[in-house]
Specification:
Length: about 700
């Protein structure tokens, strides 16, 4: 058990007091006894001289005795009390006289009889200064000083022990606090920093450094280190935020920025800081804070943003698709009579006449409108792509005509089209989509300053030793090279590297979805070709598209289209809610030799067929009609007569396609508008199979 300083002090003083009292009592008794004995011995020594009345004999002895035994005065008396002689000692010193005046040195009278040969011959009297208390005070003072030294030493020892104990406890508490702090920081995945603004020294905790892939003491502990780690795009605004907080009363900040890792990549962190110390002028001199790794969270936010963009795009495409379906259905119903009647009018005109040529222009315009509807459906992914031997130069020229009407005259269109470049196996709608997309992008790059849009089409041969074989992964052979160039703003290398990425765009919000070039890239690849781009900032952009050329000429393909139109005499029932379409189809088929019954009401058509089912050889029906769809009508007709052939001819319907139509027993599925030759072939094909 450790005693307190007060307990040690009390014990020390009590012990000293008791010891002093005992010592004084014993010492005084012994001192008085010693002096009495010394006086008696003196009496024995001077007795013979006194007997002989020799007054000079004992004087020297008495002087010596007086000095040795500290007597103040010795007097020798005869029996008659007559003094023979007196001896006085030296006067006491200053300290002794002072103690004598205050009564600390009492004067004691000591007497003894003088005997000689058994008879009393006188007496001796001595005055003795009893200075033992005086001596003892010195001793007491010494002991007191010793006690004080012991007390001070004990206090120092105990204080040192207490300080050591408190120091150990404090050290343990600090270690525990520091351990808890590190556990809390590690648990929260926080890195800590401490900035001394007077020296611009910054302490970075181990977790702070490991968060970025650095080892301890690998980076200088300076503010410049932190600035160098900041992403170049974040430096200006981050430093402004921190500076603004340092100059305002609210000295807290919270920022999300990117810091460079050891491998050179950047990581998102959430940095929080606060001024924790000010000088006497209220100027901040120290700040501290934490860094939290939010890279995964930030990446998740970016992914969510991308998904939201894709979802929005998908919803937009779905809306466009729904709109496209309605447009296709209605527009094809409009085009059907235009094409049909125009063909029939032209059929009755001499080919050398001006009317026949004018009618051909009507047919060409209607055919372009038909292809435009296909493009809308293809863009909304609601139609299948049909590849056939195609003269690419015809599509290019047609696209340029459409572009010229929409592009301002500040942009010059230069074309260099080789009309003998050859044929490619391609989908005309997709080729048209490529041209419109690339030319529109070129227009956007030049709309503010104007410029030149150049479109070139040539035939090239790629030999086995050609660098394009390895560089572009193209097989040796014959290719059509479509080149689209502009003199616009151009792009840097970083943008060129990402230009074909989905949802990547350099256009302003609302001007582009970032899907155009990725779709172009996909179309070119699906055709077995390759697309390259070259661009420099301020020097314009050039796209080159390589499409495999096929040996079969389009002349052969067009010859097949100009085959003789087959005729017939069978009985056909036509059902369509559009009266103009019904009359046109009826007239077209009657010109081909068929006997046609046309109806615009499904219920009446079903009633007529039910009454005379054997009077019809073929049913041609639309899909989208009021009260009853073409699919429902077909099922009811097939329930009555399963062998009856049915052709479904529709503008567009989301409810049915070719596979679904054939699954319910419909023989052929044809998209409107249907030209005379196509209608004749489809009808003949279905009826001939029926005959077989």
């Amino acid at each position: 058990m450790i005693m307190t300083i007060k307990q040690i002090r009390n014990i020390t003083w009590v012990t000293l007091l008791v010891a002093f009292c005992i010592f004084v009592f014993v010492w005084e008794r012994k001192d008085l006894a010693d002096h009495q004995e010394s006086l008696e011995q003196t009496a024995v020594v001077i007795a013979p001289a006194l007997w002989n009345l020799d007054a000079n004999g004992p004087v020297e002895y008495l002087k010596l005795a007086c000095q040795l035994d500290n007597y103040a005065k010795i007097t020798v008396y005869a029996v008659t009390d007559k003094p023979f002689f007196e001896i006085e000692a030296r006067k006491p010193g200053i300290i002794a006289r002072t103690f004598k005046r205050i009564g600390l040195i009492p004067l004691i009278n000591m007497e003894t009889d003088i005997h000689y040969k058994g008879s009393k011959i006188g007496r001796i009297s001595a005055l003795h200064y009893h200075d033992t208390i005086y001596t003892h005070l010195y001793l007491l003072l010494t002991l007191g000083l010793i006690a004080l030294v012991v007390q001070y030493f004990s206090r120092a020892v105990l204080a040192n022990q207490s300080l050591e104990v408190r120091g150990k406890e404090r050290t343990q508490d600090l270690r525990k606090s520091e351990e808890r702090l590190h556990l809390a920081l590690d648990g929260a995945d926080l890195g800590m920093w401490d900035w001394d603004m007077t020296t611009d020294k910054v302490y970075f905790s181990p977790r702070y450094l490991s968060m970025l892939g650095y080892e301890l003491n690998e980076l200088p502990n300076t503010l410049a280190t932190w600035n160098n780690l900041l992403h170049p795009d974040d430096k200006a605004w981050v430093n402004k935020v921190v500076l603004d907080c340092l100059t305002q009363e609210d000295s807290n900040w919270s920022i999300e920025c990117r810091l460079r890792q050891k491998d050179g990549t950047y990581r998102w962190i959430l940095g929080r800081g606060k001024v924790v110390e000010y000088d006497r002028n209220n100027k901040p001199i120290r700040a501290a804070g934490t860094h939290l790794d939010i890279n995964d969270q930030k990446q998740g936010e970016l992914e969510r943003t991308k998904l939201e963009v894709r979802l929005t795009q998908a919803q937009k495409m779905e809306a466009i698709g729904t709109l496209a379906g309605g447009i296709a259905h209605d527009f094809n119903n409009i085009l059907t009579p235009i094409l049909g009647y125009a063909e029939m009018v032209q059929y009755g005109l001499p080919k050398e006449s001006e009317l026949w040529a004018n009618q051909q222009e009507v047919l060409n315009a209607a055919d372009r409108a038909k292809n435009l509807v296909k493009q809308i459906l293809a863009f909304s992914r609601q139609s299948e792509h049909e590849r056939k031997p195609l003269q690419i130069h015809l599509i290019v020229k047609e696209a340029i005509k459409l572009l010229r009407a929409s592009i301002p005259t500040t942009i010059e269109i230069r074309e260099d089209i080789d009309t003998k470049s050859g044929t490619a196996l391609a989908d005309p709608t997709q080729i048209h989509q490529i041209l419109m997309n690339l030319c529109t992008n070129a227009y956007h790059a030049m709309r503010e300053t104007g410029g030149i849009l150049a479109v070139e089409l040539t035939q090239i041969e790629i030999e086995r030793a050609d660098t394009k074989v390895t560089a572009l992964h193209l097989a040796p052979g014959s290719y059509l090279l479509l080149k689209i160039s502009d003199t616009g703003t151009g792009m840097d290398r970083t943008t060129v590297d990402r230009i074909f990425d989905p949802y990547f765009t350099t256009k302003k919000k609302g001007e582009g979805t970032g899907m155009g070039l990725s779709v172009v890239h996909g179309i070119v690849k699906s055709h077995g070709g390759h697309i390259t781009v070259y661009s420099e900032p301020g020097q314009g952009t050039s796209f080159q598209i390589y499409l495999p050329r096929i040996a079969t000429s389009s002349t052969e393909f067009e010859a097949k289209l100009k085959e003789d139109i087959p005729l017939g005499k069978e009985r056909i029932l036509i059902v369509d809610d559009e009266e103009t379409v019904v009359r046109m189809e009826q007239q077209m088929l009657e010109h081909l030799g068929y006997k046609v019954t046309a109806m615009i009401n499904c219920e009446e058509a079903l009633h007529a067929f039910t009454a005379q089912a054997d009077d019809f050889d073929l049913i041609i029906t639309d899909m989208t009609m009021p009260h009853m769809t073409g699919a429902e009508l077909s099922q009811k007709i097939l329930a009555i007569r399963p062998d009856i052939p049915i052709i479904m001819c529709t503008g567009f319907s989301e409810l049915i396609n070719e596979d679904k139509a054939k699954a319910i027993g419909i023989r052929e599925y044809v998209m409107k508008p249907v030209v005379r030759q196509e209608m004749a072939k489809v009808v003949r094909k279905v009826l001939d199979v029926q005959i077989i």
